[in-house]
Design brief:
- There is one protein chain.
- The protein is mainly beta.
- It folds into 2 domains: 145 residues, Sandwich (Immunoglobulin-like), CATH 2.60.40; 176 residues, Immunoglobulin-like, CATH 2.60.40.
- It has 3 helices and 18 strands.
- The strands form 4 sheets. Strands 10, 12, 13, 15, 17 and 18 form a 6-stranded mixed beta sheet that branches.
- It is globular.
- About 4% of the residues have low confidence.
């Protein structure tokens, strides 16, 4: 299936501020924090009117009215626009050509709009936007063509308020509390083009070396919680990613982080290993996704050594079997009590 917008080169949205629509998935900073997407009030509250704020860019040689769409999805790295349980469009707006202007620090000509949204449930959601010429062809209703399409971007940050004394209910993993992990569901989808059975790799890893850009993206969300004090500076405990058995999950053998001292570190007691900031807890699962599959995985983390007010940051990424990036999500476990 080809992207109807492949031949359109005037409109774009950014993965990283100033990228000019050239989407770099190999950047040290996550590419799924688009600066062109935001929510007016966070965390979203069920039934309370809210707005999704969207920006679009024009290359300077172009002048046109631009249509923008906003989509809200369950927290996850990838989405199926044909499955409303995965993601659904909440609105569409037009940014007139006259509203685009050169803004200091922004690439190209910048235009902005807001799309009304009343959340159907509490908590953070994932956001996808698309921007394209109003008078041109419509985008596909079957795929977002992320991360390759410069007309689309995502903003996937998921804050999970957690406690050290109980485990959240989860429909994919062991019953609450039995395995000592705090579980949260994570959505995913088969985004292979054309639709076909496809292998996928899901990788989750704690982020201990938070860059200034990542801190800047996460802080506005975390500061909405009075209990937040700081980002965790030491590795957390065990991490697991549960994948439905129907997807034929396999867990490759894993060793240390590759640092030359790991052969020593691996032989030390767990409390000593926990002091190593290089050995960030991680988990990887390979799976086989049926055509057009979308569903849920389960991320479980051990928060027993995390202090109240600390935020543990994890990145969940999805790749195809060749190693090409397909999507990503940052999950922040904030211990509130």
């Amino acid at each position: 299936m080809s992207n109807p917008l492949d031949n359109e080169h005037g409109v774009y949205v950014e993965f990283h501020a100033g990228d000019g629509g050239v989407h770099d998935v190999n950047s040290p900073d996550p590419w799924y924090y688009s600066p062109d997407i935001d929510v007016q009030k966070t965390p979203p509250v069920q039934g309370e009117p809210n707005k999704v704020k969207v920006r679009a860019h024009l290359h300077p040689q172009y002048s046109m009215d631009v249509s923008v769409e906003a989509w809200i999805g369950i927290p996850g790295p990838t989405f199926d626009p044909q499955d409303p349980a995965s993601i659904k469009r909440i609105g569409k707006a037009v940014i007139p050509a006259a509203a685009f202007a050169q803004v200091p620090g922004a690439s190209g000509l910048l235009g902005a709009t807001e799309i009304d949204w009343t959340p159907e449930s509490d908590g953070h959601k994932c956001l996808v936007v698309r921007a394209y010429p109003k008078s041109g062809v419509d985008p596909s209703d079957k795929s977002f063509f992320l991360p390759d399409d410069p007309h689309a971007a995502q903003h996937n940050i998921f804050i999970v308020p957690a406690t050290k004394l109980q485990t959240a209910p989860d429909d994919n993993a062991l019953p609450a509390g039995r395995d000592g992990l705090w579980h949260t569901p994570v959505g995913a989808a088969n985004v292979a083009e054309p639709p076909a059975e496809a292998g996928a790799t899901f990788l989750v890893q704690q982020d201990l070396g938070l860059s200034a850009a990542v801190r800047g993206a996460l802080l506005p969300y975390l500061q909405a919680y009075p209990s937040f004090q700081t980002f965790a500076k030491r590795p957390g405990g065990r991490v697991e990613l549960a994948v439905p058995a129907a997807l034929q999950p396999t867990v490759p053998a894993q060793r240390g982080c590759g640092y030359w001292l790991c052969w020593i570190c691996e032989r030390l007691p767990a409390p000593v290993r926990a002091a190593c900031r290089r050995c960030a807890p991680s988990a990887r699962v390979d799976a086989t996704l049926p055509p057009t599959w979308s569903g849920k995985l389960s991320l479980g983390v051990d928060l027993s050594t995390t202090q109240v007010g600390e935020a543990q940051v994890y990145n969940v990424r999805q790749y195809d079997r060749s190693g090409a990036a397909q999507g990503g999500l940052t999950v922040v476990f904030l211990v509130v009590s």
